[in-house]
Amino acid sequence: MSSLLPLKPAAASVRDRSLSPLLVELDDADADEVLSALSSATARRLLAAVYDNPCPASELADELDTTLQTVSYHVERLVDAELIEPVTTWVSAQGREMAVYGPTRSAVVLFAGAERTESKLSSGLRTLVTGVGVTLVGSVAVQALWTARRPQVRYAAPAPAAPEPSVAEFVSSFLAGPGGLVLLVGVVLAVLVSLGTVWTQRRV
């Protein structure tokens, strides 16, 4: 068994773990804990180090040229602030398990001001897509209702079987009917509303 030691499984990268960024506004309730954990230059260097290369506390102490006691103290505070976490376990040559620490988020961003975590462009885009989707469903319903209520041609003899309309014929009929008009008006309104959303957020 000793020939298999030490065991050092590779820790997954930030991209492989599909982490999201942490955005903390300075007046948020979580800001105090994050700022407190990062108040030391050693803590900030430690956090940057695990982004580059997740590793146990002993290797972090060597990399930062400080004591294991100092690193353990800052590791505990960063774990409590949910900025780092154990991502895998190594086994030393003596058979001792060591937690390997990596970041919990793809990035940590502290900001001040009225900017929200959601970009103005994505908000306006979502409003536009939602509006167009609702308009499309509504226009198809209007077209179907209009088609069902159109007067039917009566034949003295049995009516000939109508061929299935092609995609081009269906689209042409849709655009020429009330469904196309509803779609056009709805798209224009959705664009105006999304632009209004972006403009309003720019003034906040």
Tell me what you see in this structure.
The chain is mainly α. It has seven helices and four strands; from the N terminus they run βααααβββααα. It has a two-stranded parallel sheet with strand order 1-4. Strands 2-3 form a two-stranded antiparallel ribbon. α2 packs across α4, α3 (57-64) packs across α4 and α5 (120-149) runs antiparallel to α7. The longest helix has 30 residues, at 120-149. It is elongated and about 90 Å long.
Order of helical and strand elements: EHHHHEEEHHH
Range of helix content: 40-55%
Q: What's the gyration radius in Å?
A: 31 Å
In round numbers, the mean pLDDT is: 79
What is the oligomeric state here?
Answer: single chain
End-to-end CA span: 64 Å
Model regions low in confidence, pLDDT < 50 over at least 5 residues:
none
Number of helices: 7
The 3D shape can be described as elongated
Q: Please give the order of strands in the largest beta sheet.
A: 1-4
Provide the structure class.
Answer: mainly alpha
The fraction of residues assigned to DSSP E strands is 5-15%
Major sheet: 2 strands, parallel
Number of strands: 4
